Amino acid sequence: MKKLFGIVCLSALFGLMTSCDQKNVTMKSYNEGINILPVPAELQQQEGQFKLTKSTSFYAPTPEAEKVAQFFADRINKSTGYRLTVKEKDGSNCIAINVDPNQQLADEGYILNVTPKGVKIVAKTAAGAFYAMDSFMQLLPAEIENQGVVDNIAWIAPCVSINDQPRFGYRGFHIDACRHFIPTEEVKKLIDVMAMFKINTMHWHLTEDQGWRIEIKKYPRLTEYGSKRIEGEGNEYGGFYTQEEIKDIVAYAAERFVTIVPEIEIPGHELAAIAAYSGLSCKGDSITPRFIWGIEDVVMCPGKEDMFNFLEDVLAEVVPLFPGKYFHIGGDECPKVSWKKCPACQARIRQEHLQGDAQHTAEEKLQSYVIQRMEKVLAKYGKSIIGWDEILQGGLSPNATVMSWRGVAGGIAAGLQNHNVVMTPGHDGGMYFDYYQGDSKIEPIGIGGYTALEKTYNYDPVPDTLRTIGKEKYILGVQGNTWTEYIYNNDLLEYRMFPRALALSEIAWSPVDKKDLNDFYRRVNNAYVRLDGHEIHYHIPQPEQPNGSCNFIAFTDEATLTFKTSRPEKMVYTTDNSTPTPESMEYTEPLKFKENTILKIATVLPSGKMSPIRAITIEKQTLSPIQADVKPLRGLKLKIAYGNFFKPNELDGITEWKQKTVKALEEIPSQVPTTEDMRGIPHYGAIAEGLINIPSDGIYYISSNYDQVWIDGKLVNNNEGQVKRYSRADTSMALAGGWHQLKVVFLGNIIGGWPSQWDNGSINLREAGQEKFTPVAAEQLGYIAQ
Ligand code: ACM
Ligand code: ZN
Question: What pTM, to 2 d.p., does this model score?
Answer without folding.
Answer: 0.95
